[in-house]
Design a protein that fits this description.
Radius of gyration: 19 Å
Oligomer: single chain
Helix content: 40-55%
Strand content: 5-15%
CATH topology: TIM Barrel
Largest sheet: 5 strands, parallel
Number of domains: 1
Distance between the termini: 45 Å
Structural class: alpha/beta
CATH architecture: Alpha-Beta Barrel
CATH class: Alpha Beta
Shape: globular
Strand order of the largest sheet: 6-7-8-9-10
Length: 362
């Protein structure tokens, strides 16, 4: 498959370097951050119709130091760094975010071929996240990493993360070294997520799996701007058309960046099985039905009209607030608060209510 192998590793290395740069630029030099050294920010209290609501950010990234020792001396030694977790509470207070759900991104560990090392990396990441959450239980929850290149191991890791560590679901990439996650070999992971009632948050990494190497090079950082939503669109489409949601009907899969392009051009997907004789669809329901039951998306649509259309296609009950922290996208809560097409109940659901149900936040 074009674009796999070394180019996948390079793309993920580029992402880790970007994370490190964002971290350094936004906070302070030195790699370790002292929360107490920051000037306290006034905490924004968000209310709707006079009712104080809880705002939950479901799309946020970070890394944990525990993984560094595990990968020391391996080809992955430089992959475990990036954006530290410290120093973010003041920003959350300023933005009006009460709870943030943390994920470790880039999914570089999918390339690890040694099952034992893959298990050690994920264990370090999940335990590191759990340790951070335990020290700030009122402000953070976290989603588990897993070694999806070993689907049975990934299922075990998800169960361990949820039951032993108190993690609230799973964070996954859009493919595993170029392979579609709708393939039957990944069913053990999906089955475990359904069994646990665990929310699964998918984050893309530049569409390495479907675009030939260097196709999105050049001006505009198109690997991110176009590649990320394209990978998400492809990922969701495979789960629909390959019948994954029919095999596991209670799955709840959240897609970063407003679900990619799928909600924006859902009509073409909706009729594909009717008008394309070679579509060979395995899905038992109409695509829009999965968009209103199994699939959720964050608010990273970046415009009022985009949010209006997202709500129209998916319903307010399928959308949650996300910032992509620590990156500086303009995704403030005011996009939702000021939306004239949303009811007060819809605003409360999108900003926190839906996420509280998904992530079991009291």
């Amino acid at each position: 498959m074009a674009g796999t192998g070394d180019s996948l590793m390079q793309n993920r290395r580029d992402f880790v370097r970007t994370m490190a740069g964002a971290s350094a630029g936004f906070y302070a030099a030195g790699g370790r951050f002292d929360l107490l050294a920051q000037a306290p920010a006034e905490r924004r209290q968000v209310s709707i119709a006079g009712k104080r609501i809880k705002v939950v950010d479901v799309h946020a990234h970070g890394t944990v130091p525990e993984v560094a020792e595990v990968v020391k001396g391996t080809p992955y030694e430089r992959q475990g760094g990036g954006q530290a977790l410290g120093g973010r509470i003041a920003l959350l207070d300023k933005q009006g975010i009460d709870v943030q759900a943390l994920t470790i991104n880039a999914f570089w560990w999918y390339e690890v071929k040694d099952r034992g090392l893959a298990g050690q990396i994920v264990r370090a990441q999940n335990e590191g996240l759990a340790k951070w959450v335990a020290s700030h239980p009122d402000r953070f929850v976290a989603l588990a990493s897993s070694s999806l290149q070993f689907p049975d191991l990934a299922a075990e890791q998800l169960e361990d993360g949820v039951k032993r560590l108190g993690l609230r679901g799973a964070a996954i990439g859009g493919h595993v070294n170029g392979e579609d996650l709708s393939l039957p070999k990944y069913d053990p992971f999906w089955a475990k997520a359904e069994e646990l009632g665990a929310f699964v948050f998918m984050h893309p990494g530049g569409a390495d799996n479907i675009i030939k190497d260097k196709a999105l090079a050049g001006r505009g950082d198109l690997g991110n701007i176009m590649g990320n939503p394209l990978e998400t669109t492809y990922f969701l489409s495979r789960l629909i058309f390959d019948g994954t949601f029919d095999k596991f009907p209670r799955l709840r899969v959240g897609a970063a960046h407003a679900g990619g392009y799928l909600p924006s051009y859902l009509g073409r997907t909706e009729v594909a099985c009717d008008v394309r004789g070679n579509a060979n669809c395995a899905n038992k329901k109409r695509p829009h039905e999965y968009m209103r039951t199994n699939i959720l998306a964050d608010t990273m649509i970046l415009s009022e009209e985009g949010l209006r259309h997202l709500v129209a296609e998916m319903g307010a009950g399928q959308i949650f607030y996300g910032t992509d922290h620590p990156f500086n996208w303009p995704v403030t809560i005011d996009l939702v608060l000021n939306a004239p097409f949303l009811s007060d109940a819809d605003k409360e659901a999108i900003l926190g209510g839906n996420a509280m149900k998904l992530l079991h936040i009291a």
